Amino acid sequence: MSSHELTVYLLGSEGTELVRRSRSYTGTVDTATAINLLVAGPTEEEKKLGLTTEVPTTTSKVLAVSDLIVLPNDMAALTKMAQFQLYCTAIASRGTVEGVPSSGFKCP
Hints:
The protein has helices at residues 33-39, 44-48, 80-92; strands spanning 3-11, 18-26, 63-65, 68-70. The mean pLDDT is 86. Strand 1 and strand 2 form a beta hairpin.
């Protein structure tokens, strides 16, 4: 299996800024892979760096339909920062997230 570098966006220690992180992933990668890594939360190393997330956890998998990311129904309501985390992670993976404004915000 081949290894891939995927980008996820977490929150800095203050919870007010996005931090771009690269993660290695071995296996088949589709548009939802990075989003599922984001939903799983920060790694132990990222936690030690003070990075956090506002993306709600879920027991369901995020799906990719064509280039559209479909979030599970059991996922809690998204805060503004969680929306930005998902949006930037999706954009880095060439996907789209419905209902999140794509203008007026630039991913770091």
